[in-house]
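Example S7 (structure tokens).
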């Protein structure tokens, strides 16, 4: 396959060269060096994605837009703001089209008895979609290409097939990993959680990490003030700063609504369990906006079944017991005074 280049390739190359020159003036600031490296890598990925769109899908506008969106999301101010992006972008309508459209179910307008029975089965399937069947389902995975994913199977047939595959290729390559190592990120993100994701909501100070290299290698952010940076450049040293760990919130978009009991008249209560269709899921979304849940969200508390806020790590900094230190100092001082007094008295007697 011949190599293709985007019209913006020359501009991207110039920007990368400029960033390399800028690195020479930022050697004293590790956070700036990291940001420059991130921008360079994102520009290189964009250049590759743009070339793929041009060469394999004839400069498809949607493909080029996806490449540009990826570039924006890789910028230092936006990188790791969402994890993973594929879950965040879960397309509910595509999943419905893959499983419940006329093309997917095979419904027909024929008046034959066989068609009637078939359409009755389809009716019950659609009823399940409204009441019991979840979207996403237990077999779903964001970024997949089967009918359980949100890939538009029936919209990518015929002439659209090639461009859809190229767009999906650009969209799903060079995925971000977890922001940093933490048990908080060990949550299920496939199956019914394929539309659930993490969003960055702030930072947690890490006073236990004093070294900038250790801070950055850990996936955290080293923050320096402009004054410290300027002074460091004048002295040729490394500017003082502080380490900060990104703080995240898990948005639980698992479909369904738990209905514990239902009692009508004198009929005993019935446990209905969890209804996962469109209607109960919509009701669950509405219930998540009740005043008590909104208050918890605004005050940084968990909202059960909807949102889990990451706790900042408890840092126990080393300290000196001043009381014990003062006591030891006084004992030593008393002994020295006694010895000094004995020494003076001995010399006086002599």
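Recovered sequence:
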């Amino acid at each position: 396959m011949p190599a293709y280049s985007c019209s913006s390739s020359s501009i991207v190359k110039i920007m990368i060269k400029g960033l390399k020159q800028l690195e020479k003036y930022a050697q004293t600031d590790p956070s700036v060096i990291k940001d420059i490296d991130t921008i360079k890598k994102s520009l290189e990925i964009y250049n590759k994605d743009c070339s793929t769109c041009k060469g394999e899908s004839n400069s498809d506008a949607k493909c080029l837009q996806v490449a540009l969106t990826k570039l924006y999301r890789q910028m230092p101010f936006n990188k790791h703001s969402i994890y993973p992006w594929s879950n965040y972008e879960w397309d509910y309508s595509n999943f419905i089209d893959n499983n419940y459209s006329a093309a997917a179910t095979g419904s027909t307008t024929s008046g034959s008895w066989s068609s009637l029975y078939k359409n009755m089965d389809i009716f019950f399937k659609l009823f399940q979609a409204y009441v019991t069947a979840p979207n996403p389902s237990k077999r779903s995975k964001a970024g997949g290409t089967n009918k359980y994913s949100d890939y538009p199977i029936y919209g990518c047939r015929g002439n659209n097939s090639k461009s859809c595959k190229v767009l999906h290729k650009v969209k799903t390559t060079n995925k971000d990993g977890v922001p940093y190592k933490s048990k908080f990120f060990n949550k299920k993100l496939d199956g019914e959680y394929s539309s659930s994701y993490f969003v960055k909501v702030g930072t947690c100070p890490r006073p236990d990490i004093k070294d900038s290299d250790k801070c950055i290698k850990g996936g955290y952010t080293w923050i320096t003030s402009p004054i410290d940076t300027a002074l460091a450049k004048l002295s040729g040293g490394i500017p003082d700063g502080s380490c900060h760990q990104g703080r995240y919130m898990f948005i639980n978009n698992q479909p369904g609504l738990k209905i514990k009991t239902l009692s009508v008249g004198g009929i005993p209560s019935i446990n209905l369990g969890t209804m996962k269709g469109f209607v109960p899921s919509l009701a669950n979304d509405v219930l998540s906006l009740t005043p008590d849940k909104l208050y918890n969200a605004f005050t940084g508390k968990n909202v059960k079944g909807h949102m889990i806020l990451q706790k900042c790590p408890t840092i126990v900094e080393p300290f000196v017991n001043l009381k014990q230190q003062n006591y030891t100092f006084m004992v030593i001082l008393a002994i020295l005074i006694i010895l000094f007094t004995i020494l003076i008295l001995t010399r006086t007697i002599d």
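Notes on this example. Residues 322-350 form one domain.
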